[in-house]
Amino acid sequence: QVQVQESGGGLVQAGGSLRLSCTVSGSISGIDSMGWYRQAPGNQRELVARIERIDNTYFEAYEVSVKGRFTISRDNAKNALYLQMNNLKPDDTGVYYCNLVPWDNNYWGQGTQVTVSS
Question: Which of 65, 75, 85, 107 has a Cα-to-Cα distance from 95 of 20 to 30 A?
Answer without folding.
Answer: 75
